Amino acid sequence: MPIYGGTLKVEIVSSESSSNLSPRAIAPEVSSATTIAVLNQVLPVDCSNNTVLVTPPLAPMPGDIFAVSDSRGNALTNNISIDFVGASQFLHGRSQNDILNNNADYREYLYINAVIGWVRK
Asked: Is 45 within 8 Å of 71 (Cβ atoms)?
């Protein structure tokens, strides 16, 4: 039943690591076949010459984030895969990977908990 004329108090609860919900730093560009993303950083990936497999940050905590960017605009030809399955982490509550497969793709991920895992922002 709706309540009219009252005041709704909302409390936002966050962990220390989630006080800023967008990546604050840019990591060095990578072009190797495999790499590990770093929390709170954008990982620019050069996939001009090969596909790239990115492992999400290990041991995430609720509120943690990371981002991956196709820095040279070649993901349509050479995909960038985010290997949640190999890292034993979930994406949207399921054991699945994510693929950047459009040129200049950019994705941010937010860690919710061990049951849901990461979600795309």
From this structure: yes
pLDDT in tens, 19-69: 455 666 888 888 888 999 999 999 999 999 999 999 999 999 999 999 999
Residue 50 lies in a domain: yes
> Considering only CA atoms, which of 45, 29, 7, 14 is closest in space to residue 112?
14
Q: ∠ CA 89-69-20 to the nearest 5 degrees?
A: 70
**What is the rounded distance in angstroms from the CA atom of residue 72 to the CA atom of residue 104?**
7
Full domain range(s) for residue 64 = 19-120
Which of 29-38, 65-74, 79-88 shows the lowest per-residue confidence on average (mean pLDDT)?
A: 29-38
Percent helix, strand and coil across the chain, each to the nearest 5: 0, 35, 65
pLDDT: is 97 or 20 the higher one?
Answer: 97
Strands, E, within the chain: which ranges? 25-26, 34-36, 41-45, 52-55, 65-70, 80-82, 98-100, 106-113, 117-120
Q: Is residue 51 part of a domain?
A: yes
